Every structure is written in structure tokens, then in C-alpha cells.
């Protein structure tokens, strides 16, 4: 028995040492290529293996479902038709506006009002909320994340074991690794840029700054296991231009910045973000605004214009939607960035939801929860398309230009081009209005009619 | 629906006839099966299963439109008892959005078709004219959700609107002239210069957005 004790501690020591060594080796193995911007292709191999496993898992679920003769839940993202959630009044006003040339402040019943109800009726016949949920054909591949599985009862024992193994790998192996990488990346960024900031302005400083930025972003990319495919890299943004992209998550910044050297625009935050922002601006002229300045649109526009007109300054990175969208559509672009008059380089980013859903629903998850979710997914797979540059034509105004850019991005990324404001994400469009539909409509007509008959 | 070979041929045929893509036709077919309970035809009762449709004030007119033989491009008149998938698609094709590659003639034809669909909705006795009574019916239905609105108000609204329509179509009328009703030509005249075709369509989502990125 006495012999066991030293043996135990020996084993424990060995275990500890080997784990540490393994960990450090892994870190080095991942960070070194990031520093030099090369890739061993390990992530892609990982992705292919995962896909095979997912397919197998899906087949098992389908088999299980068939045995029990039940339909399998198929999450159609948004149904099959695009519904525009404008309110009844707005929509009817729009229909009338595109119709008669009469003044709009005398809205009485018009022949065109029937359009709205007719269309709504046909839409519900084509596709309604309730029946959207169930469908009896093939499931899209299940990606072994319980957050995306709605068919729990069809999981066999083998599948559960596999899923459990997946959880183990993700939380106990990948997560600490990723956190370590992220920590390294962020601290290198802060320290590196502060050091570079001490140098006098000149070519040397720029060169070093660029490489420090790129290196740290690449490490962060590996920290998320992001597998990114860049298309049309010859259209990458150049100095003196504005880079415009659709926005799905805060990770977009990391994805774009790891392939190009941009000047960021944004509001100064407190906390860790603030520290990073302040460090980073020492090495490279990013455009940060105080909270009070953000409200002043002219000031913002002025600063951006100044930055853009200096040809030696870096391209600015802007997300004109103003908020994170769920990556199936592109919403209204705010026109501010399009008024500045610089060349716009549109970029379309599309995430593959199979490996992990990158959309940040900021009303549902805080930043930390979101990052944890990202780091415990399998991987983040996305495609980035660099579109050819666009400039504002003399006969279009900022809004039309913004819409043109938006359509180009939506078309390239295969996203739906929607006209409504991303701000609606925070205000719920109530479904209960359907019942009020008729009441509202009749109030609208009769109320105005009474006014008229009174006058 | 038979073996896969004959199905894709049928889908091709339908695609050519109605202008939908084969993917959209597949989606709509699934929807058709859901509505009909896996039967080959749909009857009026099947539309009762759609809860969202209950809230629509002109529900009965919309359902009616599906069975209207004029909309189904059949020679005879009146109402069909049941419709098959091809008829279903025919009705849905009235709500297709405009395509970029349409020329003037096609656009014009498209527009006329959509307006005809609407005209048939108003003209419930199938006599080719929207009379005052039919107009009143539509207004009453649209305003039926509001219990406080009296029939009188609904009537006067309809009368006023009808008079306006008359003034557009016929111009100044003699005091004892009676305006019979809005014919389809008058209907078209009222909508001249107004592009309703951009409002009367249902957009399909591009299902290929769940694309493979690798």
C-alpha cells in the first residue's frame, strides 16, 4: 500500500506534465502559422470529417423516425414566402400612393384597398405559421448540437453516445483551447499595437502595425475555428475607399480584418473593448467616436469624409445595416456612409449554419453568452465575396445608391433583399394585429368619412 | 404521384404553363397536399383548415375566386366544385411577381390578367359588370369587422366611390342618366398609369440560400 502512494503522485505528475506539453504544442502549432499567414489545411480536414459524421447521424434519426412512423420536424427558416411586416395602415397608404394622384389626407375607400386583403389571403393560403412546422420528408443534416435538434425522441443509444462524445470534445477540449487562443490573440493585439504606437510615424511603423493587426486577427480566427473561403480577392478594398458589408455578428469584423488591413469605425466602449480600442488606435488611425459625438450625424460624416479624402489612409470598414441580421436577408442600409462620396467596395458575408449559427440576437443573448456559444460550436464556416467597387452615379441620391449596393450584396450572397428597417428587430411586430385588421381598416375608412361628412 | 420520371415531366409541363420554377411547384404541391389531406382535389371546405385566413374580411371572396371558372381559364361559366393541383397553380400564378426579363407586351398581358382576377372578385354574378349592389357588397364585407359601423355608412361609402368611378369612366353625366356598372374596360381605365402589378404579388424566398459554402 505504501508503494502505491509515490506511484500515484508519479502518475499524476506525468499526466500533468504531458497535458501541459500537449497543450503548449497545440498552441504553438496553431499560432505559428497564424503569425506567418499560412495554413496547414487542418481545419478543412476537420470540417470534412464532421460532415461525414453529421450525415451518419441524420440517417440514424431518419431511420428511427421511419420505424416509429412519425413525421420528422424540419425547420424551414422562414417559410416559403417573404412576408413584409408593414402595418395595415402603412401598406394601404403605400398602395394608394402608388395609385392615385389625389392628396393622401383624404383617405376614403378606394378600389385598391382590396389588394392588401387579397394578397394577405393568398399568402396565408400559400404558407401559414401553423402548418409550416411539420413536413414529412428528408431532414437537413443534424449537426450534433442539441440546440439545433428538435427530434430528441428518435435518438438511439449509439447516437446519444456520439452526441455525448461531441459535448465532451467541445466543452472540455475545444473550449479551453479556444479560450487560450483568444486570450493570446487579444493580449498580443493590445501589447503589439501599444509597442508599435511608440515608434515614430513612418513606413516602418505602418508595416509593423499592419502585420501585428493581421497576425492577431488570424489568431482570433483560429480561436473560433472559423473556416473562411474568400472569393474574388482581386476586388479587395483599397486606400481611400469604404468597405461595406452585411452584418450578422460581431465576428464579421474579425473575419474581414484577418484578410485585409482596415480602419474601423465605431463608438468607444468601456471595459475590455475599450482597452482594445484605445490600444489599437495608437498604431493605426481608426475612427472612434465618443458616445455624445455619435448622435451628431454631421460630425460623424465630416470625420469620415476627412479620413476618406486622405489617400494614404486605410479603407474604412462599415456595416450599414446598423444591427445584426440573421443572415437570410439584407435589410435597409442607412444612407450616411453613402453620402460621403467615396468609392464603395461591397462585401457579402454568408455563414453556413450547419456548423454553428453565427447570428447574434442581441435581445436574447449578451455578448459573453454569445461568444461562449460560438466557442462551443463545432466551427464557423463562412464565405466572403469581394464585389467590384461601386461609385455613386450623378443622377442618383444616397438612398438609391445604398439600395443598389444592398441589392448587389444580397444577390451575391443569396440573401433576400428586404426593404424594411433592421431596427424593427427590437420592436416586435405583433401578430395580434391580425384580429384588429378589420377593425383598424374600418375605423380608418369610417373615421375619415365621418370627418368629411361633418365638414 | 407516380414514379419520379413522370413526376419531373409533369413538373416541367406545369412550369411552362404557369411560369413557376420547378422548385416552387414542388413547394406548392406539398402545400396542396397539406390542404387537401392527401387527396387529389380541393373543395371549399378544405380552406376552413387555415386559421389565419379566418381573420381576413374578404375570406369568402378569396376562396370563391379559387373555384371561379373564369379564373381557371375554362370556357364555361359558374363555379367549379373542386379543383386539382393544376387549377391551384393557375390561380397562384396570378400572384407571381414580375420578372426582369419581360418585355412590354408580356408586362401588359400580365397586368391585364391580374386586374381581371380582381374584377372577377368584385363581379360576383358573372355578368361582366360591377354594379352598385356588388360594390356595396364588397365594401360591407371589408368593413364587416367593425360592429359599430352601421350599414348606412358602408352604403354611403360605396355610393360615393361608385360615383367617383362613374365620373372617371363616363365623364359628366346627365341628371337622368343611369350608370349601369363598371365594365372591364372601365376598370382598366381606372387603373391606367398606376402600376398595381408591383403590389399584387407574393414573393417566394430563394430557397437556395441554404447554400453550401465549401
From TrEMBL, chain A:
Any Pfam family matching the protein: Acyltransferase
Q: Does the keyword RNA-binding apply?
A: no
Q: Which residues cross the membrane?
A: 12-42, 155-173, 179-200
InterPro entries noted in UniProt: LPCAT1-like (IPR045252), Plipid/glycerol_acylTrfase (IPR002123)
Keyword DNA-binding recorded: no
**Cross-referenced SMART domains, in alphabetical order?**
PlsC
Pathway terms, separated by semicolons: Lipid metabolism; Phospholipid metabolism
Kindly list the biological process annotations in GO that this record carries: phospholipid biosynthetic process; triglyceride biosynthetic process
- Keyword annotations from UniProtKB, A to Z: Acyltransferase, Lipid biosynthesis, Lipid metabolism, Membrane, Phospholipid biosynthesis, Phospholipid metabolism, Transferase, Transmembrane, Transmembrane helix
Coiled coil (residue ranges): none
- Domain Phospholipid/glycerol acyltransferase residue range list: 241-352
MF terms from GO for this chain are: glycerol-3-phosphate O-acyltransferase activity
Per the record, the domain of life is: Eukaryota
SUPFAM superfamilies membership:
Glycerol-3-phosphate (1)-acyltransferase (SSF69593)
Q: What is this protein called?
A: Glycerol-3-phosphate acyltransferase 4
Which organism is the protein's source? Alligator mississippiensis
Q: Which gene encodes it?
A: GPAT4
UniProtKB/TrEMBL annotation, chain B:
Localization, UniProt? Cell projection, Lamellipodium; Cell projection, Ruffle membrane; Cytoplasm; Membrane
A molecular function annotated in GO for this UniProt entry is:
protein kinase inhibitor activity
One GO biological process this protein is involved in is: cell differentiation
Which PROSITE patterns does the record associate with it?
EF_HAND_1 (PS00018), EF_HAND_2 (PS50222)
Identify its membrane topology class: Lipid-anchor
InterPro entries with a match to the protein in the record: CHP3, EF-hand-dom_pair, EF_Hand_1_Ca_BS, EF_hand_dom
EF-hand domain span: 110-145
What Pfam families does the record point to? EF-hand_1 (PF00036)
Q: What is its main location?
A: other
Similarity comment text for this entry: Belongs to the calcineurin regulatory subunit family. CHP subfamily.
Q: Name one GO cellular component term.
A: lamellipodium
Which keywords belong to this entry? Calcium, Cell membrane, Cell projection, Cytoplasm, Differentiation, Lipoprotein, Membrane, Metal-binding, Myristate, Nucleus, Protein kinase inhibitor
Name recorded for this polypeptide: Calcineurin B homologous protein 3
Amino acid at each position: 500500500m505504501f508503494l502505491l502512494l509515490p506511484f500515484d503522485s508519479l502518475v499524476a505528475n506525468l499526466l500533468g506534465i504531458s497535458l501541459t506539453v500537449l497543450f503548449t504544442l497545440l498552441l504553438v502549432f496553431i499560432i505559428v502559422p497564424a503569425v506567418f499567414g499560412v495554413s496547414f489545411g487542418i481545419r478543412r480536414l476537420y470540417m470534412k470529417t464532421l460532415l461525414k459524421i453529421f450525415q451518419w447521424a441524420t440517417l440514424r434519426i431518419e431511420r428511427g423516425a421511419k420505424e416509429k412512423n412519425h413525421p420528422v420536424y424540419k425547420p424551414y427558416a422562414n417559410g416559403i414566402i417573404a412576408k413584409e411586416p408593414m402595418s395595415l395602415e402603412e401598406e394601404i397608404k403605400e398602395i394608394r400612393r402608388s395609385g392615385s394622384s389625389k392628396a393622401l389626407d383624404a383617405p376614403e375607400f378606394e378600389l385598391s384597398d382590396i389588394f392588401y386583403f387579397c394578397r394577405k389571403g393568398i399568402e396565408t393560403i400559400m404558407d401559414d405559421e401553423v402548418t409550416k412546422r411539420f413536413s414529412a420528408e428528408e431532414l437537413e443534416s443534424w449537426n450534433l448540437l442539441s440546440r439545433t435538434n428538435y427530434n430528441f425522441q428518435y435518438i438511439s443509444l449509439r447516437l446519444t453516445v456520439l452526441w455525448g462524445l461531441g459535448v465532451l470534445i467541445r466543452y472540455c477540449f475545444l473550449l479551453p483551447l479556444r479560450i487560450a487562443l483568444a486570450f493570446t490573440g487579444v493580449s498580443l493585439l493590445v501589447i503589439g499595437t501599444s509597442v508599435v504606437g511608440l515608434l515614430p510615424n513612418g513606413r516602418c511603423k505602418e508595416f509593423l502595425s499592419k502585420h501585428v493587426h493581421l497576425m492577431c486577427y488570424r489568431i482570433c480566427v483560429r480561436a473560433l475555428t472559423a473556416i473562411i473561403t474568400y472569393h474574388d480577392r482581386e476586388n479587395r478594398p483599397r486606400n481611400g475607399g469604404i468597405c461595406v458589408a452585411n452584418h450578422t455578428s460581431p465576428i464579421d469584423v474579425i473575419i474581414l480584418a484577418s484578410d485585409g488591413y482596415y480602419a474601423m469605425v465605431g463608438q468607444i466602449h468601456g471595459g475590455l473593448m475599450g482597452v482594445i480600442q484605445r490600444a489599437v488606435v495608437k498604431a493605426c488611425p481608426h475612427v472612434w467616436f465618443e458616445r455624445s459625438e455619435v448622435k451628431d450625424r454631421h460630425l460623424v460624416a465630416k470625420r469620415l469624409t476627412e479620413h476618406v479624402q486622405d489617400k494614404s489612409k486605410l479603407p474604412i470598414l462599415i456595416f450599414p445595416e446598423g444591427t445584426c441580421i440573421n443572415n437570410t436577408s439584407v435589410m435597409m442600409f442607412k444612407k450616411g456612409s453613402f453620402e460621403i462620396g467615396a468609392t464603395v467596395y461591397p462585401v457579402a458575408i454568408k455563414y453556413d449554419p450547419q456548423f454553428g449559427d453565427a447570428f447574434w440576437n442581441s435581445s436574447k443573448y449578451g455578448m459573453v453568452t454569445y461568444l461562449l456559444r460560438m466557442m462551443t460550436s463545432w466551427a464557423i464556416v463562412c464565405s466572403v465575396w469581394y464585389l467590384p467597387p461601386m461609385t455613386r452615379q450623378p443622377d442618383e441620391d444616397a438612398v438609391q445608391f445604398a439600395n443598389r449596393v444592398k441589392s448587389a450584396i444580397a444577390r451575391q450572397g443569396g440573401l433576400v433583399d428586404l426593404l424594411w428597417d433592421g431596427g424593427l428587430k427590437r420592436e416586435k411586430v405583433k401578430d395580434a394585429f391580425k384580429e384588429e385588421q378589420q377593425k383598424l381598416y374600418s375605423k380608418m375608412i369610417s373615421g375619415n368619412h365621418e370627418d368629411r361628412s361633418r365638414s | 404521384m407516380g414514379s419520379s420520371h413522370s413526376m419531373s415531366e409533369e413538373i416541367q409541363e406545369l412550369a411552362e404553363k404557369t411560369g413557376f420554377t420547378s422548385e416552387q411547384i414542388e413547394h406548392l404541391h406539398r402545400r396542396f397536399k397539406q390542404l387537401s389531406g392527401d387527396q387529389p382535389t380541393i373543395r371549399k371546405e378544405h380552406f376552413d383548415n387555415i386559421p389565419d385566413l379566418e381573420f381576413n374580411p374578404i375570406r369568402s371572396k378569396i376562396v370563391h375566386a379559387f373555384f371561379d371558372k373564369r379564373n381557371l381559364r375554362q370556357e364555361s361559366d359558374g363555379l367549379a366544385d373542386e379543383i386539382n393541383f393544376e387549377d391551384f397553380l393557375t390561380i397562384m400564378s396570378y400572384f407571381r411577381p414580375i420578372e426582369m426579363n419581360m418585355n412590354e407586351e408580356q408586362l401588359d398581358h400580365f397586368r391585364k390578367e391580374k386586374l381581371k382576377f380582381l374584377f372577377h372578385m368584385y363581379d360576383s354574378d358573372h355578368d361582366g359588370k360591377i354594379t352598385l349592389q356588388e360594390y356595396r357588397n364588397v365594401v360591407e364585407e371589408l368593413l364587416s369587422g367593425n360592429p359599430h359601423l352601421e350599414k348606412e355608412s358602408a352604403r354611403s361609402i360605396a355610393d360615393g366611390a361608385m360615383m367617383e368611378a362613374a365620373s372617371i369612366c363616363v365623364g359628366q353625366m346627365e341628371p337622368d342618366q343611369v350608370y349601369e356598372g363598371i365594365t372591364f374596360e372601365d376598370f382598366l381605365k381606372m387603373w391606367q398609369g398606376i402600376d398595381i402589378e408591383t403590389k399584387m404579388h407574393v414573393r417566394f424566398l430563394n430557397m437556395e440560400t441554404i447554400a453550401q459554402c465549401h
